[in-house]
Request: fold
Amino acid sequence: MNYQRMPIEVESPEQMGYGNVKYNLTESSFTDTKWQDLNVNLDDLVLCYVDHLGHPGLRQLLATEAGLKADQVILTVGAASALFMISTALLERGDRLLVVRPNYATNIETPRAIGAQIDFYDLKLEEGFQFDVDRLIAMIKPDTRLVSITVPHNPTGVVTPPAVLKRLIAEVERRGIWLLVDETYRDMAFDHPIPYTASLSPRVISVSSLSKTWGLPGIRLGWAMCQDSKMMETLLAAKEQIFICGSAVDEELGYRFYKKKNEVLPRVREKIQEKRALVLSWLEE
Reply:
């Protein structure tokens, strides 16, 4: 694989040094959580190899919320590793995928490193950063293996209407290809709850994490969901070959936090709304 560093990572605040960034106008995550705010005691935690699929309790919480089964969820080292696993599991040199762009860098650079051929559907400001589903479908070629989108869209926050999403899913089902939905910002959607996309079809793989909405990027915990058992077996094989299993500490922290998610979410959303209003006011001025 031909690895190249991604500009988004080279220029990230953590690499530039947080102390060197006076005004960060592009931060997409909720404020980072402090350890003391988690209020957890891990004195009894055994630091062993853990379940290769991930913490059973956390997977069950996620699965129940999504209307899936626990074995249809695999925990990963952040969403980024899930995206890497999916690309390497589905694509080889010369394979083709269709990416709705802008998109998170890993959804582009990992297929590029593999040597896959990428077709881009470029979103436009004049069209409200929504994709025309018929035009997108028309771009799917006979050798396309994967269609990659983000919902809510990264970085604009635009939400794909359910009818549009279902139309696209019906088409990937008809063609027997895969739809990857990076839904890392799902819990930041305010107007209408967004379904876990993997619950809508066995041909969909959805990916998310605790990093963005929850301000927990430091514990490196994400997941992929899919109803297809063969795909889940493949993702498990990929995970085992890359890092065997996740961190016992990260997964236990994630589990305990997610059990209290509904207590935390109202505060998070209130703060996000405050900061959104601040940005809108600044733009107006």
